[in-house]
Amino acid sequence: MNQLNHIAFIMDGNGRWGMKKKKSRNFGHLKGVDTVKKIVSYAIKLKIPIVTFYVFSSENWRRPKKEISFLFKLIKRYFTDEIERVISQGIKINIIGDIKKLSSDIKKTLNETIELTKKNKSITVNLAINYGSKNEILNAINNTKKKTTLKNFEKKLYTNNMPDPDILIRTGGQKRLSNFMLWQLAYSELFFVKKLWPDFKSSDLRNIIEKYYKRKRNFGAI
Ligand code: IPE
Ligand code: IPE
Ligand code: MG
Helix-strand-coil percent breakdown of the chain, rounded to 5? Predict the structure, then answer.
């Protein structure tokens, strides 16, 4: 059976979901948080060591200010209101992305969360915030001496020496990576799901994992 260390999610479709419900794009983002909570709990149950969520891309700054500020308010609220639950579930929060450029308010919340959860062992949850894969790679290049090895280079990526995702799931129907983990997804099994992120259920994840176990991963061999 294929080993399963890491699942990455491009949680797309929140905005469309909110509009479909005749509410707002932001209503979709709010519901999207519930899906994240459910999926994390399920991943803990399945003993998956690492999950990564694409929360905010370096290109998402192109969105209207109102939506951006709502998203960051949501992130902050999640970690102030839910921190006790996060700790009691044994969740270790790790941020990947360029957080230096975020507001000091958000940085403070994120850094406190990292500190409060750093010893937790049941799962590592990577949140990709202000994340762009091309920038991640460029940043690693600029932090590398002239000649390097793959192993050392990978230590300079935001993911440091984490295992690469075994599975990538993108909801929302688009079949693209949108500047997400271009390096780390080199040999991942890709799953594109039509459902919008707020509609994605633990049972959808279970079906994907079952399919994953049946896939033959070659890594270039036969
Ligand atoms: C993904 O959902 C979440 C973020 C990018 C923050 P979208 O907001 O992209 O939702 P759609 O794709 O417009 O429906
Ligand atoms: C990808 O979704 C980014 C996140 C899920 C955070 P987008 O909605 O931003 O992707 P594009 O713009 O449709 O490619
Ligand atoms: Mg989208």
Answer: 45, 15, 35
Report yes or no on 219 lying in a domain. no
In this structure, is residue 137 part of a structural domain?
no
pLDDT digits (tens, 9 = 90+) for 53-78: 999 999 999 999 999 999 999 999 99
Q: pTM of the entire structure?
A: 0.98
Q: Which residues contact 216 (CB under 8 A, 6 or more apart)?
A: none
Ligand 1 site, CB within 6 A: 11-16, 56, 60, 71, 172
Specify if 153 maps to a domain.
no
Domains held by the chain: number: 1
Collapsing DSSP to helix, strand or coil, 94 comes out as strand
Atom of ligand 2 nearest to the CA of 15: 8
pLDDT tens-digit readout, 7-54: 999 999 999 999 999 999 999 999 999 999 999 999 999 999 999 999
* CATH code, domain carrying 33: 3.40.1180.10
Cα–Cα distance, 149 to 121 (Å, whole number): 30
Q: Which of 44, 39, 74, 83 is nearest to 56 (CA)?
A: 74
